[in-house]
Amino acid sequence: MIKAVQIARYLGRPLWGENIRVTGVRAAHSPEPGCMVFAKEYSAELVRAFNDVGVFAIAAPEYEGKLECPHVISPTPRLNFARAVKRFFVVEKPGGIAGTAIVSPFAQLGKGVGIGHFAVIGDRAMIGEGTEIREHVVIGEGVRIGRNCLIKANTVIGGEGFGFEFDEAGVPVRMPHLGRVIIGDNVEIGSLNAIARGTLEDTVIGDNVKTDDHVFIAHNVEVGDNTLIIAGAEVSGGVKIGKNVWIAPQATIRNQVEIGDGAMIGMGAVVTKSVKAGAVVMGNPAREKKDR
Questions:
Q1: C-alpha distance from residue 117 to each of 107, 137, 177, 207, 240 (Å)
Q2: How many structural domains does the chain have?
Q3: Which residue of 30, 146, 169, 242 pairs with 261 in a disulfide if CB–CB is 3.0 to 4.6 A?
Q4: pTM of the model
């Protein structure tokens, strides 16, 4: 049984109101008695609804003194709601290898690794403790994945990139890819991603990076810590992306471009030139609009 005071203590916030049993989670617009909700922006309508229904609320400072239901006040209610949901209401999947998975005898798996049905783990792959590899994922030879990562279904990591040179007759000749993919800790890779191995150097994904579904990352790319790459984005070969970068849906980044720390790439932008730290770029071709 989860009580409101347990959640408040976990968040390091005082509990205001009755120490009720918290039975689940709901969206703010559909509250139910005893459920946990959050409110990021002030609304008198939400105040009435929360008080009438009797929820446990995680609310922004503007709600202070207005709520009669059990609640905590937080400057970051959505963040604290996410942390509380993960801590108290998400059932962690146990580690283990599904019977249909294929794992090379030369791969190394850390403690608590979970591997889903029909996943393939290649030779010399290394997967850190607590990482979950979901169904139909292919992890190529020599790929290294850190601790507590999530690789969602139908993703391919460590396949050859698209690199060719033309011979005297104009026939494309594949450039061998001898590098690896190196992924840090606490990384989430969405479904239907493709992350190519490096040619001679490695493709590197930093700690806490999150990619959405349908993202492509080419060979020799480097992605800095805490960066988010959203659905449908394409990152070409040799791109260097800094820390805390936001790359919006359907963005395209040309090969060898550098993206500075904290930059934001707008929705559908086509980036053909390097972007300075903290800049916001939009359009086709992408142009700087302001600082983030």
A1: 17, 9, 28, 26, 34
A2: 2
A3: 242
A4: 0.90
